[in-house]
Specification:
Layout: H1 3-22, E1 28-29, H2 31-46, E2 52-58, E3 63-73, E4 78-79, E5 86-87, H3 92-105, E6 127-132, E7 135-139, H4 147-152, H5 173-181, H6 197-211, H7 215-227, H8 238-241, E8 247-250, E9 257-260, E10 284-285, H9 287-298, E11 302-303, E12 306-307, H10 311-317, E13 340-344, E14 350-354, E15 359-364, H11 377-389
Antiparallel strand pairs: 1-3, 2-3, 2-15, 3-4, 5-10, 6-7, 8-9, 11-12, 13-14, 14-15
Helix pairs in contact: 2-11, 3-6, 5-6
Length: 392
């Protein structure tokens, strides 16, 4: 190659780099659609009501748009990127339920079984009948809590036990679950709905006992590695920690934004010696990884020719499993109702499959509350996305 040809090649390469840099934060999908989605959310950033967000829309075949807006770190003037990582919090619950249902498909677990069949420490658990100050009258429950109960928040287990203070991730899963078994149920099974990290953690412990593997090993081998979810983990590496979006809360007087930490988790986040998996809400992930998980569900348990769940398991998980007598519609690890199947998480993340539109919505932010109208930013994203990509 002579000098003039090399120079021409270099100019073409630089021009291509310039085009890529001017295309904004869009990673996939139509650039114009990405720009319009960003434009719908950008005003919240400019009013200091939202630090930044990663937005992804997909259908069951492909990602339609994947873009970002605002800042991952306001103080450092670091832009949010499509591959920024987030604590997805309770979006971990559908993943845990999926792992358990894989064992149901294999005939190793039955959802109608009592939990004590797999975890004998739950045998003889009592329920609070009356409570007066520090005193409680206990009695036997109408039946032992079942696997279905812990997956659908109808077991009577508390949100967490007294051991899980001040953070939720400082003890091995086995110890935490034993503390739940020692705690009386707060109501009779199926009589109420009460959101319970303890229940979902108990389901994860069943996985460990049945398979002989740690929960995190099971997830890696059966879900994350096969699905290509390379950034989904309980312990982000040092390199991944640098990609985690900073957390924010409303500033003084509910004005502006103030940096904060994830109060439910112990720092440093990468330290495996002091932090343990929290199946109900401990995972970190990216929008791209979450899209893979939801595409598997949208394809009735199959993706790229590999089956993860039976169609029956997907239908069970994503349909109402709470009694019709209760106002709360919840499946196994999934919030259901209307045309949405998915889950939100603390610090305002959200992901779901819109069955009416046939679209997967991933909304990742890291906010412990919003000042002003910041809480409306997700609706702005959703409404613009449906206008641009939804069924006419």
């Amino acid at each position: 190659m002579n000098f003039s040809m090399r120079a021409q090649t270099t100019r073409c390469f630089l021009f291509l780099c310039l085009i890529i840099s001017l295309s904004g934060h869009a990673l996939a999908g139509d650039a114009k659609t990405a720009e319009e989605l960003a434009a719908a959310v950008q005003p919240f950033v400019e009013k200091h009501e939202l630090a930044g967000a990663v937005m992804l829309i997909a259908n069951k075949e492909k990602i339609l748009v994947h873009t970002a807006v605002g800042y991952a770190d306001i103080g450092a003037n670091q832009k949010m990127n499509p591959d920024s990582m987030f604590w997805i919090a309770s979006q971990s619950k559908p993943i845990t339920a999926t792992a358990l249902m894989m064992l149901v498909d294999e005939g190793l677990v039955k959802v109608e079984d009592p939990v004590e069949k797999y975890l004998p420490e739950f045998a003889g658990q009592m329920v609070v009948e009356e409570k007066d100050g520090e005193h409680a009258l206990l009695k036997k429950p109408v039946h032992p809590i079942t696997v279905a109960n812990v997956l659908s928040h109808t077991s009577g287990l508390p949100f967490r036990s007294a051991l899980e203070v001040p953070t939720l991730d400082r003890l091995p899963l086995e110890y935490r679950v034993r503390s739940y078994a020692m705690t009386p149920l707060e109501f009779q099974p199926e009589s109420k709905y009460q959101y319970s990290n303890a229940g979902i953690n108990t389901a994860a412990r069943i996985i460990e006992v049945v398979t002989g593997k740690s929960f995190e090993q099971f997830l890696d081998e059966r879900l994350f590695l096969p699905l290509g979810m390379k950034d989904t983990t309980f312990w982000p590496t040092e390199a991944q920690v640098k990609r985690i979006a900073k957390s924010y809360k409303p500033g003084p007087g509910n004005s502006g934004l103030e940096e904060t930490t994830i109060s439910q988790l112990y720092y440093p986040l990468s330290d495996r010696s002091v932090r343990y998996p929290m199946p109900a809400g401990g995972l970190f992930s990216t929008a791209g990884d979450m899209a893979r998980f939801y595409q598997m569900l949208a394809n009735q348990g199959e993706l790229d020719g590999k089956r993860y769940l039976s169609q029956e398991a997907v239908a069970t998980m994503t349909s109402r499993q709470t009694p019709e007598t209760l106002p709360n519609a919840y499946g196994f690890g999934f919030a259901t109702g209307g045309n949405r199947v998915g889950h939100g998480g603390a610090y305002s993340t959200n992901s779901y499959l819109d069955t009416e539109q046939g679209l997967i919505f991933i909304w990742l932010v890291q906010h412990a509350g919003f000042p002003g109208d910041g809480g409306k930013s997700q609706d702005a994203f959703r409404n613009r996305a449906i206008n641009l990509l939804g069924k006419r």
